[in-house]
Amino acid sequence: MQSPAALRVIHEPDPGLDLDAAERAAGEFLRALGISLDSESLQGTPGRMARAYAELFTPRAFDLTTFPNDEGYDELVLARSIPVRSVCEHHLLPFTGVAHVGYLPGDRILGLSKLARVVEHFACRPQVQERLTKQVAGWLSEQLSPKGVGVVIEAEHTCMTLRGVQATGSSTVTSALLGTLRRDARSRQEFFALAGVNS
Question: Cα(48)–Cα(96) distance, rounded to whole angstroms?
């Protein structure tokens, strides 16, 4: 039996992306906040800002490579401490941390690096951590049809640590559990234990 073709995950460039306009807007934004752009070190800052945000908001294409689960492996597959970087949609300030992503295989298993690619794919846009956690879990469940999926994200939000309450060192933890990992207490406990999260 021929294996199905890999799913090519591509985020098409936004036809409305206009780096020149973004650079002009960044310059106006900085000047409106009283920041002079006359010095040599700041003259190029608006352009750098525009390019930096364009990069943050553009995920890389990848192939969702899966393989037949020929051995009938039915235990948890877990990738821990996948780096997460995204931008809070409320203040456009970064949040960074790690994701722990696991699944109980069905008929197919996933190339391990693709767990990190899926996290990156959904993190490359203005986000809230709760939505990001659910999007990763839901997408893996839809694409793999596993027996269960678990996602935990731990992140520090600079909109909380650098401004407002200035709660330096605080982190936010979110989780999404689907299938057996949600229904079965022992499977759920195993996922949290292997992820290093106290449930």
Answer: 20
